[in-house]
Structure prediction request, 400 residues.
Amino acid sequence: MTGRLNKLQAAFVIARRDYTATVLSRSFLFFLLGPLFPILLGVLFGGIGAKVASDSERVRVAVISSPADFTRLDRARDELAALPGTGQLPFLTSAPLETNNKSLLNAGERSVTAVLEYPFDGPTLIGKLRPEDPLVGQVRLILDRASKGTAKVPEIGLVTLRQTAGATRNAREITARGGQTLLFLLTLLLSGMLLSQLIEEKSNKVIEVLAAAVPVESIFIGKLFAMLAMSLTGIVVWMSVAVGFLALFAPGLFAMLPEPAVGWPLFLALGALYYAMSYLLIGAAFLGIGAQASTAREVQILSMPITMGQVGLLFLANFAISAPYDSLGILAAAFPLSSPFALISRAALDEAVLPHLAALAWQGLWVALILKLAAAWFRRSVLNSGGPKGRWWKRKAATA
Prediction:
């Protein structure tokens, strides 16, 4: 008869059991389809936003003037609209000189936003406007252009540089913030799954059955690493689908993405490592919380401080982008729970690789420490393996 498995072997058995049971289940397919819902919502709201934008482009200004004056204004408006960066200029509609401006503003169909009277002789703009409204400045720009007659807009000589220090820094800051946000969202979304699984197994008495065969610490570590492997599997699938979709429908988008300082291959590898560190640190805390709760409601109450703490960590890590070498930036990189978020942004901004090796070693040390403490807490609180010790006042009365 073979002896009992040691802790590492038992943890591997638990991890393999949980991983295969999760990945090979039907619910895992719905888990993979989960990100499609926010994407669909984004497309829906994007369509709504596009419709609102198109509606805003239909801003009309009625011009009460002679046909010749309106032709000058309309030509000036078209010339300005052809220039890049002039914004969405209002459309101009012609109205005879005898038209009442109130009838134009109160019209039900094809209503106008404002009415312009006497464009070249004491122009007056009538409407629900303020002096700082963009429409006022746009109308003034059209009037100024029309008053210059047929003078051509001067051409500007353009020298295109491949890159500048300021433009490169700004582009890499976009990558840094994107990497931080993605790492935060994935950790927040996927680490919470540990709680539901633990609550289910506690209610079904599975934990007690497993504890009879393997050490309790092995159950804790095995479950944590199984969920990490499962989440990494989901991330690989999502990234593969996203890359394939962009390669088919938006191949030019890859060239527009700001390249991080360390390059895309190393940046993605560091992202995976920092995600694993962040998941293990936060997941250990969530498992410890799940050990204290017996219902889903208690889990929600107890997990709220950690969720809010994660948001605070993201705010702290933002200082590693704007001021990486200030006191708050250094604190964000040194504090173990915010270090993965701070260092992924450092990979986008700085070419140095050595700080990442030191940070991974530092984070690994804290992962080992927190795993040990959380596993002991898990063993003590879930199964009460230390036995009932009694209240301190009862022990004191017994010894008196």
In short: The radius of gyration is 32 Å.
